[in-house]
Design brief:
Chain lengths: 526, 370
């Protein structure tokens, strides 16, 4: 395969001008890991300041810059691009396509990201400091009362949005047009399905986010009053627009993670995914519901009772398709032949901790109880259980699972397992106590706190340092694998792995599926 | 049941944790607080039961269905019956949760027939309380953080109510339905007191309603819960619930003090009086941004400032109207004439500014109208 084709160009131009889905996927993955470390560094500053009551390391204003940038960098820089990278690497290989449908646009959608984040990070050095209004940037704190750097923040968000939209269009075009003959929709691996649905969500809501920041720009520089009551506008309008983007956004983050877990659990259970069709329908239902629940982030803004009730009921409904997914994963494991390599460990970690995050999500959906939970550390604990133990754990599982296929070398299993256990323990020491302080009344986004929260905060900080350090072990393991891992040459690296990506040679050659493969069996069967 | 759970968790953590480490929501002192607490515990226990069942199945599978024990993988992968079951059963459980949730929510929204109306306005970074009364001038005051900078910056030992104490608390009578009208002056804040289960966003230009009826006398503390800028963590809420008699006496004293201020505004005050009161006003209104020694911080330095040492009417205009596009807010609506005169005098003479200027309440009034 590929003998008449030239390989990659040499030197830096290979990466600058590449249209190869594997190269672009690799760049996305490295970029997102760099952002993960940067956002993690911000988190370490936050936890170091919160280690003890009193102000020790940073000033309150700078603390807010840290929470803001931590959120923005993790959501837009680490998690989202990491899954786009995974999509780039895997979707063509999973559906038997030679590349993405729009390779030049693919190059562009990656290469506009680094300048955008450089610009966002550079706001730290501007007069007045970086954005300090939280990753949710509620007006008017983010408009009338913001530092001048907000304009750069707005521009950065626009670029990220453009990148995401182009990436999504590419994924939709690829999945719709480039499947190998016989690869019908209901035969596609679940990872492809979840990404297809995610891509539609992105195309639908990124323009809404762009609208929100454009209205901010108008309010700041052109004298409009979209979000100012003094000029006939409404600050709450901002929240409606933001969360109309923001709630689908959290499913944009978690749906590809569901896809990853749905690939890996069957492989290490040596048993087909239970309820393939219901998984597809559950994913679609979650995507639909994500558009009609946004105001559950706003129970305390003073909505009319009818609105509160509608959003409460709609939000509670999400538990149904999410529950179906969890039940399906466990049924997949049931009576399988389980083994517990690192990717499987991370998936089981995901399953336990994401489910806990789902439970607290259900509690938060109950509007009257949310009056006590809203904007406390209980919420912080909840969304880190779904974002970190959900999205990040599954992403980590994905790297361990597909890394041997990508580079033809096996990672160090003992080190991988050590990484899992340190992460799992560190994560729980960090975030479990946050449920307690939240319920006891500690608001989020504060740089200093009352004395009764001291012990749990110290625990949380210690856990965060452990969890943070464990990521360096991960980085080391990945680099060591690429440089000097034990070579593997089996096409199927894992005996239980299923799918077209495991039919190409290991490591995956620069060009795969120049001739469409024969699609053997439906994805739901072996 | 809830207490058993909390107890168990506490016992588990006891080597680490002192008794102060609250791990659960407080039922608080109000009926609504108790209802919310029960709802919270109900949902939590349903989640615990489901979680235990689901994880038990998973862990059994992890234990029994291992490849290392030679377990052979079965190949089943579909069952419409169980799929329908685990869609319908959770749906029914959700309905069971929605019923009590709806009725509690309706209670929370029942704002009618209040015995006392209090307008709460969020400012960066303090609360203003106004007791609305159709028959006379409203009693109004600001409530600032009372914790000292020394405690916050670790040079003094931290008190028991560190960051949860204010100079002037909100005082409400017990067993009276008190309605809060909540709004804000600048950015969005949120007024929260966990023990009385009231949390409402304070939104500039809009007024939200909330209410409480506190049955027990006591001091209830809370904090701002919507990010509102640099000192978001430093604008606590302190509510004193007192008997009706005590409340009436307090209210009378407040009205007396307000009348005395009005009297004062018509007099010529001594420099010492102005400087003393000016320092008090400065410490609560200016210090957070301009520094204890007028050295500046978020705001410009007061010591040696051209604005402060320059033309008086310009100085007052900056303090009264703020500087748009900066964190300098308009204090005109927050300070009465006496306080304004005092703080201007103080700024013009403290921190080595020594201009010798004395500003009287009458001057302030004159500049306002002229």
């Amino acid at each position: 395969m590929g003998e008449h084709h030239h390989g990659p160009a040499q030197g830096i131009s290979r990466w600058l001008f590449t249209t190869n889905h594997k190269d672009i996927g690799t760049m996305y993955l490295w970029f997102s890991f760099a952002m993960f470390l940067l956002g993690g560094f911000f988190a370490m500053v936050i936890r170091a300041e919160l280690f003890q009551p009193g102000m020790q390391l940073v000033e309150p204003g700078f603390f807010n810059q840290m929470t803001t940038l931590h959120g923005l960098v993790m959501v837009f820089g680490a998690i989202m691009p990491s899954f786009v990278g995974l999509a780039n690497w895997l979707i063509p290989m999973m559906i038997g396509a030679p590349d993405m449908a729009l390779p030049r646009m693919n190059n562009w959608s990656f290469w506009i990201l680094p300048p955008a984040f450089l610009m966002l990070a550079s706001t730290l050095f501007m007069e007045g400091g970086a954005p300090a209004f939280g990753w949710t940037f509620y007006a008017p704190l983010s408009t009338t009362y913001a530092a001048p750097s907000v304009t750069f923040f707005i521009f950065a968000i626009h670029i990220l949005g453009v990148s995401s939209i182009m990436g999504s269009i590419n994924i939709i075009a690829t999945v719709m047009n480039m499947r190998a003959p016989g690869m019908t929709y209901m035969k596609m691996p679940l990872f492809v399905w979840t990404w297809l649905i995610t891509a539609f969500l992105l195309v639908a809501v990124m323009p809404v986010l762009a609208g929100a920041v454009t209205m901010m720009l108008m309010d700041i520089h052109f004298g409009t009053s979209f979000f100012s009551a003094a000029g006939g506008g409404d600050p709450v309008l901002f929240q409606h627009i933001f969360w109309f983007f923001g709630h689908p956004e959290v499913y944009i983050i978690i749906l590809p993670a569901f896809g990853v877990v749905s690939q890996i659990i069957p492989a290490f259970s040596r048993k087909p995914l239970f309820g393939y069709a219901s998984m597809v329908y559950a994913t679609a239902s979650i995507a639909f519901l994500s558009f009609i629940v946004w105001a559950h982030h706003m129970y305390t803004v003073g909505m009319p009772i009818a609105g509160e009730l509608f959003f409460m009921y709609a939000t509670m409904l999400i538990a149904v398709p999410t529950g179906v997914k969890v039940f399906n994963w466990i049924s997949t494991m049931w009576r399988g032949a389980l083994s517990f390599e690192t990717p499987m460990l991370f998936c089981i970690g995901f399953l336990i901790l994401f489910t806990l995050g789902g439970f607290t999500g259900l509690m938060l959906s109950i509007a009257p109880a949310d009056f006590q939970y809203h904007d406390t550390y209980f919420v912080v604990a909840h969304f880190h259980y779904v974002m970190v133990a959900g999205a990040v754990f599954s992403m980590t599982a994905a790297v361990y699972y597909w890394l041997p296929k990508w580079c033809g070398r096996m990672y160090n299993e003992a080190m991988g397992k050590t990484h899992f256990w340190i992460s799992f323990i560190g994560f729980n020491i960090t975030f479990f106590p946050q449920h307690f302080v939240g319920l006891a009344g500690m608001p989020r986004r504060i740089p200093d706190y009352a004395l009764q929260f001291a012990d749990f905060n110290m625990m949380s900080s210690i856990g965060a340092f452990i969890y943070g350090a464990s990521q360096l072990l991960f980085l080391y393991n990945v680099i060591a694998t690429i440089v000097a891992g034990k070579p593997v040459s089996d096409e199927k690296v894992w005996d239980g792995a299923e799918g077209l990506e495991w039919t190409v040679p290991t490591p995956a050659p620069y060009h795969t599926f120049e001739e469409p493969p024969a699609v053997p069996k439906p994805a739901g069967t072996i | 049941m809830g207490r058993v759970f909390s107890g168990a968790v506490l016992a588990f953590l006891s080597p680490l944790a002192a008794a102060q480490n609250q791990v659960n929501m407080s039922p608080g002192v109000t009926e609504i607080g108790a209802d919310i607490f029960e709802l919270h515990m109900l949902i939590m226990w349903i989640c615990v039961v489901i979680g235990v069942a689901v994880f038990a199945v998973m862990f059994y599978s992890i234990y029994a269905h291992r490849k290392s024990k030679g377990h052979q993988a079965s190949q089943f992968h579909e069952s419409t019956k169980v799929e329908v079951a685990w869609t319908v059963v959770p749906f029914l459980i959700l309905i069971a949760m929605a019923v009590p949730a709806t009725s509690t929510l309706l209670e929370v929204y029942d704002n009618d027939e209040a015995g006392l109306d209090i307008l709460i306005t969020g400012y960066q970074w303090k609360w203003k309380y106004e007791y609305l009364d159709e028959t006379s001038e409203p009693v109004a005051f600001f409530s600032n953080l009372a914790t000292s900078q020394e405690e916050i910056y670790n040079t003094d030992e931290k008190g028991d109510n560190y960051l949860l104490e204010v100079d002037e608390p909100l005082v409400i009578p017990t067993n009276t339905k008190v309605r809060f009208l909540v709004t804000a002056n600048d950015v969005i804040h949120s007024w929260w007191v966990p023990e009385i289960a009231v949390k409402r966003d304070a939104i500039p230009g809009f007024i939200n309603e909330a209410w409480t009826r506190v049955p027990e006398e006591g001091i209830y503390r809370g904090q701002c819960t919507e990010l509102c800028g640099a000192y978001h963590g430093f604008m606590p809420v302190e509510v004193h619930a007192v008997s009706r008699d005590e409340f009436d006496a307090w209210m009378a004293a407040k009205r007396g003090a307000a009348a005395a201020q009005t009297q004062l505004a018509m007099q010529t005050l001594s420099v010492d009086h102005l400087m003393d009161q000016g320092k008090a006003v400065y410490d609560s209104a200016c210090l957070a941004c301009h520094g204890a020694q007028g050295q500046g911080g978020i705001g410009n330095a007061i010591a040696g400032s051209a604005v402060v040492m320059g033309d008086l009417s310009n100085h007052m205009a900056v303090v009264a109207k703020g500087v748009s596009g900066t964190a300098m807010q308009a204090f005109g609506g927050q300070l009465n004439d006496v306080e304004m005169a005092a703080v201007l005098t103080y700024q013009r003479n403290a921190f080595g500014n020594n201009t010798g200027d004395v500003v009287q309440p009458g001057d302030v009034n004159g500049m306002k109208n002229g």
